Every structure is written in C-alpha cells, then in structure tokens.
Amino acid sequence: MFEVIEVAGVLHADPLGLDRLRSWLSSLSFTDQSTPGFVAVEYKCSHLSQIVRQRTTFRELVEGQWPFLRPEGHTMFERSLGHDGDAHRDILPYFKTLWLEEKLPGEELAEYAKRRLSDLRFYTNSISQKDEEFLLELSRRLWDSAVNNRFDQPNKRDETWSELIIDRARCEVREHAVAIVGQMHARREIPDSFVYRLEKAKIRCRVKILCPSNG
User: What is the model's pTM?
Assistant: First the structure.
C-alpha cells in the first residue's frame, strides 16, 4: 500500500490553471525511488478526448468574445479547456493515468466549449480590457466565487473516487501517487470529501489548493 498521495485542488475553468498545475507538478521532483504509481484525474478517458478536440473551437469563441487579448491570452484560454486531465502527460509522461470518472455516468459534451464560454462571461463584467489584468482578475473572481459559494458537502463522486484509490492502494507497489481533482474535493475540512475519506483510510495526503494566492 502506498504511503503518500500528492493532491492538487484545481478550478476547472481557471484560465491560468494550467500554468499553476504545471508548476506544482514540476515541484514534486520525483526520483527513481519515489516515482508515483499513477496520476488520478477527474475524467473518463473518452470524455477528455472529446473536450480536447474542442480546444480550437474554444479559442475561436474566446477570440470573438474578447478580441482585445493578445494571441498569448487566447492561447491560455485554449489550453485551459480540460487542462487538469492531461497536463501531467508533459511533466510525468511515463506514469499511468487513473481515470476517476470511469465508473460514473457521463454528461453531454457536444457543447462543452460553448458552455464554458457562457460560464466565464458571467464573471467578466467591468474587468479592465488589458491582457494580463483581464486574465488575473478573471482567475481571482472565479476562485473567490468557488470558495465563497461552495457547498460544504461531499457528493457521490467523493465516495466513488476514494473507494477506487483505496482499492488501488492495496495492491500498489509504489509508495507515492498523484491526484488532480476539483478544489472542493481536495478540502479535508469538508467531512467525507475525497481527501477526508482517504485520510480516514490512513492514506496520507499532501494537498495543494492551486488558487491565485498559492501561486
């Protein structure tokens, strides 16, 4: 059974989330002795593929919505779509991906990029139309909303994911693992959250909530 799971708490819609996640993954500095047995992500493999294919569409939508952004800003939005599902492949390319959503019902993904743009527009009123300021302020508003308006209750996913990890841990020869999940699932102060359940099962979690103030 492995000893430690490194957990990143992310915000799926954060346009700056990819850079924060990549920085965190790089900081883990695994050695041959501490190589993780797997990287768990909050997706089905087939669903992530559908989302990734919509990145170009998402960029086109963002370019039409916020044309004042420089190409680099549009690229950040484009890369943010589904970023928490495949960012680890660049940093930890040889490690197995554990798809946490594989046993859960699916969702309609055909309009995923359009729904994401609609969600983001809600938070952009009165933001300065300057490239860097726009992205930073949008990121901050998204995180403020997620933290202030979250429901301090677990959901079915927390139970399913934690059971999957616990079962996997029993037969894992590696001492470490990585999990990338939504920030609410990563908060141990929420009873029966993903992290709460893992720690109750004696799996030590090192958690990093990747909000703006945490880099």
Answer: 0.92
